[in-house]
User: Fold this.
Amino acid sequence: MARSLIIIILSFITLSSFAQKKHTISGIIKDEATGETLIGASVRIKEISSAGTSTNNYGFYSLSVPDGEYTLLCTYIGYETITRQVLLHHDQSLNISLSSKSDLNEVVISGNKPNNDQIASPLMGVEKLNMSQINQVPVVLGEKDILKTITLMPGVKSGGEGNTGFYVRGGAADQNLILLDEATVYNASHLFGFFSTFNSDAIKDVSIYKGGMPAEYGGRLSSVLDVKMLDGNNKDYTVQGGLGLISSRIKVEGPIEKDKGSFMVSARRTYIDVFLNASKDSTIKGSSLYFYDINAKANYHFDNNNAIYLSGYFGKDVLGLKNTFGTNWGNATGTIRYNHIFNSKLFSNTSLIFSNYNYVIQSFLSDNNFKATSKINDINFKEDLQYSMGSSHSLKFGVNILHHTIAPGDITSNSASSFNNISVQQRYGYETAAYVSDDWKANSHLTILYGLRLSGFFLFGPGTFSTYDAAGNIASSSTYGSARVVKSYLNLEPRLSSSYQLNDANSIKFSYNRNTQNIHLLTNSTTSSPTDLYVMSSNNIKPEIADQVSTGWFRNFNNNIFEFSAEVYYKWLQNQINYKDGAQLIANQDVESQLTYGSGRAYGLELFLKKKYGQFNGWVGYTLSKTEDKFSAINNGNYFPATQDRTHDLSVVGIYQLNKRWSFSGTFIYQTGSAVTYPTGKYNVGGLTTFSYSERNGYREPSNNRLDIGATLEGKQHKKYHSSWTFSIYNLYGHRDPYSITFRDSKTVPNTTEAVETSIFATPIPSVTWNFKF
Amino acid sequence: MKIFKSYVTYLLFLMVLSSCTKVIDLNLGNNTGELVIEGNLTNVAGPQAVKLSKNVSFSTSNTYPPVTGATVTVSDQAGNKYAFTEGPSGTYTVNGLAGMVGNTYTMAVSANAKTYTASSVMPAQVTLDSLTSKNDEFNTSKHKKVITVYYRDPVGVANQYRFVMYVNNVQAKDVYVFNDQFNDGRYVSIDLREDDSSNGNDTGIFAGDTVTVEMQCIDEPIYTYWYTLMQQENNGPGGGVTPSNPPTNITPVTLGYFSAHTTQRKTIVVKN
Assistant:
């Protein structure tokens, strides 16, 4: 399939070959000090304003221009701009190293020229996060955090304290595709959302696509969070780490062979359980409560045209009560990638990806002994190609075959236990896709990124597959053998995003994309938890479909020092999944009988003002939005606000570099409370005060607001080592964010009822971390 | 799997040592005056009762206006029909009726110019073996106790159970409902504890308390009714489900249920 696709595309390219002789310049852009490839660095020809590109995920760029003599400009945020004179009389390869400004040991206020990439690029709804900014945004308990920083962007909302998910443009938490070096991460947080699984020491680059997803991404409705790990320093060995109040981390990196290959290993562990040992309560004293994770990566460049990358992640959360109960869960991913540059125009990456998510729940009580397990295993093959066609077309095309194995639940127990051994049938499915997209510079004003993704889903036996009647009883059952297709779905997903540049500082953009999703998270609680269950599309569950249109105005001010954007979007969601009342989801063979299907819609306005450069930088993001669901079985079939609906969402982030040693940061957020269902009456049944309800999610929790501050003190400069202190205070003014509101019989006034608000982190929480590097 | 939920809830509270609760005022809607039917038919001869009332707003006291002047009957599949007589405060009773295992009973209530019907099957009784008490493994410094119920679940049939616990003659304000999805045919022990957490309802069980447990064997729709209410109780960390009126077996839909169930009781004094 890959081969025929290549042939089709190459013949298309040949047909449209050009009269004028063109040459191609290509190469890899790297960090001078560490040899890390730079993703998204901008490369342009000074003499031809339309000739520009940016490096791909492996730092590769390719530009084709007519025969001539040119000035090549290479820029990357936080790095010195490099200019090179090039004589282009034949195709040539040019690798460039940029030096980071932080290595220059001075506060650079206007070292390089800010560019207007955001104006020219056809992409919209995309945020690329700068790791140095992430490192300065204060977060709870001092652990810098990619996911927490992502939720400060307009259109991205946090699920709230103690919730593992985040929501993009009204999408549910499971509608985000979270990739770590191309591998799917099913549970992106540790300890119920207090920390993300991404150790920012090990991360090179983070991008989030909220809309207008390029065709190379698929499989989820709402967003793509693409996280890439550092390759490792291929010049020198370095060790860096941090000691914090509740967690510590360490990273080691260095060359395998200087300038050719490198490795990086980064690990972290929390030790909150140490505090539990101080408790008087004997059960708490023996409890475990921690997580750890390890990121590792190695790469080797055989020559200029061939490179191999190996990367892996392993993380686990462990919770347990002494001799009573234990649970653990975690992700493991592994990626093998092979980069091959066929010629200056054609770049190829072949990936083999493994991903696993599992959880275990164990009870050690003699008469209630059991062990429940659940897991997902993915094996994924991807072939991605990139072809530069002249200065105006850049093609991407590829194929993807992903095999899922889902073991929804197994329970084992000993003979004295109250529990039986139960095994729910495993499910097997293939997600396949082929895509092509073209980044076309139509003229000096108009750039169009258009593409098509064909996605197929195939549910395979062996197993027994049932259909259900309205009451949830089995209507029919059939048994399939191991090579039999139970159900298949094919979907065509058009993708388009375009930019019309009015002038150097203004552009108008438009995008449309269709996304489909064949793996679904079932949760019957208002917050997601690690034990939530994944199911695939099936004879009962249809693929979820989302169509999104968005348009926006992008404006730069003050020589591109300020970036402003205003985007509006509208999203239609089909085949959304909800559960019936009283649904039993755990270890249930007939879990699909517990589901009900509906649709949704989400729309909003996002305003974003960003200052990327200077001693003082940061951003202000504001979102006005509405997200609604419609299920015939819920709320009398009327639209109701989704749990993740937030009318207003404001975030302000400021970072101030006082001098070489001190920098300060602050984050303020304001959010409309989540949509909740509150009682509209009460009655008594079974001797219990029981509440009656009218409309679904008809009420709002009180709004959230919070101010966090942080400061970093860089240690004095030493030849051999470097150290710094990070201080932060979470929730500076101790605002009570409601975590949950419950209703009960009053404890003080007999024969009445009361509402009780629970909040967590309602007091300022200080933290301090010592970081080192040598 | 309620056990799991409560463990996780407990651990989360541990983790967030700074969690705190307070009573707040909320401006809640007022959708009241709906008919509430609570019909119970047990296997023990004695007055069987159907209670009719109306729901009230959240902010008023827990006094529910009775519905009077209604006609209430219960019939079995053999066509025997029992008329209930109206007593005080919306309670309609019949004497000398004991439900038979395996019979389908249909309740008909005519009130507000409408007739409501519901059917329920009386399941076979499973013997409540014994009750014991032990120390609660949570919050050991409080020296709380847990009551354990024991019974042998019959193999090969679906069984559903509801327990009602009384501590010193005061009903625990929790729903305890279980099925045999995970323990069909096993000798089952289930821990019942009072929720005395900061947003819970009760005070806990301690040595010296007299505890009575009623075990009901209920049919599947009634299990779903109570299970839905039980899921909604857990609104703390770890997540509760979005609350709604539980699915009733009464048509047309109104608040409440009609349950034909077996009943048996045991009492113990909690030892130290």
Summary: Chain A touches chain B through 93 residues (CB under 8 Å). The first helix of chain A runs from residue 2 to 15. Confidence is low (pLDDT under 50) at residues 11-19, 103-112 of chain A. The two ends of chain A are 49 Å apart (CA to CA).
